Amino acid sequence: MAVVLLAGCGRVITLPTPTPSPAKGTAVGIAFVTPTGTATATPAPYTPAPTDTPTVTPTPIFYEVQAGDTLLGIAHRYGISLAALQEANGIINPRSLQVGQRLVIPREVLYQSEGTPVPTPTPVPVEPRGVHFARLPHGGLWCMGEVANPGEFAIEDVQLRIDLLDEKGKVVATQDAHTEARVIPSGGRAPFVVSFPNAYPKFTSYRVVLLRALRAHQGRYYPDVAVVDASGEPLDTGLYGVRGNVENRGPEDAVDVVVVATLYDALGNVVGVRSGPPQHNVIPPGGKSSFKMEITPGGGPVITYTVQAEALRLPTPTPVE
To answer: In terms of domains, do 128 and 205 share one?
Structure first.
């Protein structure tokens, strides 16, 4: 489904007029299920939750293509995979490289441990993938995707920037986004969604830039929640329904519980995202809370979906002296 002091990113979408075409999610203390289903939903408007403005803007590395260069040769020169280089620059066909073309070279990102920057950069192979664009009936543009964390540590506060590029590689529009899940565990993933306004410009490729990723403060998250009895199906309204229960299998109260659902098409692209609390967002030990979501697909048909739940611990009271 489918870097970096900078960017990771999807494929070039060659669309004279941007045509919709979309992946998955996870977190620490998260229950993650992947049941399957099918649907024939029609794309409809969706308004993503507002996103914060990133506080860190890393400086990317650029490379200008020279005569005789190949994409594979450039990838080997910088010690990265061909796929990573293609993803970072939205390139579908490696043979389409042109002399003078400016490429983004995926780099390392700095983890920040509990909010404190580490003095030495630590490699963080965070991977944006499964990016999908859908035009909305009112004229806007919807961008969805997910961020995978194949690294050793859980990360939180993941902030992204989606750039739309013209045929010359110039940024013509940009929007910022956060992942819907607060934390992405090692081996996990989390979706993101953002909308561009009605008057978005014509573009031929895109770039997903990682702006920030902090090493997660594990003590803050409650790991013993699980999604159970999950089911999903297309609805007569054209929406896709997902329901189930969140179960607390641990010894403490699970508080501020959030459920994140992600829809995927046959290519593994993200075509729908929704997050929100279950019926009760505080679940006692051994308890359950039900959830029910109706999601507007931005493409389809929906072939599969994932549901994850995450929760926080009750804060420890500070002793009064």
So the answer is: yes
